[in-house]
Fold this protein.
Amino acid sequence: MSVKKEMKDLRGNMTALIVARSRNNVIGKCGKMPWRIHGEQKQFMDLTSGNTVIMGRRTYEEIGHPLPDRETIVVSGTKQFRGEGLRTAVSLAEAMEIANGSDVYIAGGYSLYKEAIPVADLMYITEVDLVIEDGDVFFPQFDEEDFEKETGETLGEEIRYTRTVYRRKVTEKNESDRK
Ligand SMILES: NC(=O)c1ccc[n+]([C@@H]2O[C@H](COP(=O)([O-])OP(=O)(O)OC[C@H]3O[C@@H](n4cnc5c(N)ncnc54)[C@H](OP(=O)(O)O)[C@@H]3O)[C@@H](O)[C@H]2O)c1
């Protein structure tokens, strides 16, 4: 069975990606988020609360602790993270299996986003109005034609950011890509 097919079978009710990216598509720099924007994390906290968040080992180590009121599954082949609301999986497919049945939010980094885009129902992309020099982690390229884009509010004082939601179109191509 292909990994894509396996993940489709293991998908919970809904699979979403959640990310903030700069105008030049940067999501990380030197192991950190390249910005601190007061209030920007609220959407992440609201959406993921009560659900399951899947993230790569480096992203988890940057946060440094499990997030309250939600299940965190860290993908790592080298380390084990366990505790209240905290599990480890060796692959995205295994993480989806652990999460089976619940709504899943993929929270980065690069390779989890890349693997999850083909199975994502929704992508919450916050467009941060900055150009980041020397970024070292980028959001993967994807085919915008596969999604309907809704542009939401622009917020922020010193740094402006715009909420967007990419919702997968129900088309024959999308359905066959996901099989
Ligand atoms: N702007 C945003 O919204 C956002 C969101 C998330 C992260 N970030 C930024 O992105 C950077 C971290 O992202 P990253 O891409 O460097 O690292 P990452 O994906 O967080 O972590 C990479 C590690 O996770 C494990 N992993 C990830 N994908 C895997 C897969 N498909 N299969 C098996 N293992 C997998 C591996 O762990 P092992 O080495 O232990 O095997 C890998 O070395 C940081 O700068 C962070 O601040 C930004």
